[in-house]
Write a structure and sequence with these properties.
By secondary structure, this protein is mainly alpha-helical. The protein is built from seven helices and no strands. Helix 3 packs across helix 5.
């Protein structure tokens, strides 16, 4: 398993626990992350990458959740399983808000997390939502290039 994949897995697990507990404030998420890094990623070289994911997802939570609601309108955010919801949050952060990861890598990593941690249809659900977002990003990019 690559360092970044493990970092994403640990970030997803921390976000899952934080979300499961009702998203408490007061340093709960950083504390959960530190504990999970020690338990699941001793010696992990990408700890800052994992920490950045949870910080940015938390900071942009309203925007990310609005994107989920737009692209999965038949699934209210509180009815999406906690795993799928947090995998989507990481995927959307990497796809739309972080330019460090190529879009197809962000989508593939999210699908793998969903398959590994979610239910039987989690991979397809995450793929459908992130695929629709990516398609819109490509269309927007193409239209902007034509307008230039």
């Amino acid at each position: 398993m690559s360092n970044r994949h493990l970092a994403r897995s640990i970030a997803m697990q921390a976000l899952f626990e934080w979300d499961f507990r009702g998203k408490p404030e007061h340093n709960a998420l950083p504390d959960i992350m530190e504990r999970d890094l020690k338990e699941f990623g001793p010696g992990l070289a990408e700890t800052e990458f994992a920490k950045k994911i949870i910080e940015e997802v938390k900071k942009n939570l309203e925007e990310i959740d609005a994107i989920i609601e737009k692209y999965a309108p038949q699934w209210p955010i509180d009815q999406i399983t906690i795993i799928d919801r947090n995998v989507l949050r990481i995927g959307i952060y990497e796809l739309k808000l972080n330019n460090e990861v190529p879009p197809k890598v962000a989508i593939n990593e999210a699908i793998e997390l969903a398959k590994n941690f979610g239910g039987p249809s989690s991979g397809r659900f995450v793929n459908g939502v992130l695929g629709a977002i990516y398609k819109d990003l490509e269309t927007k990019s193409t239209n902007e290039a034509k307008a230039s």
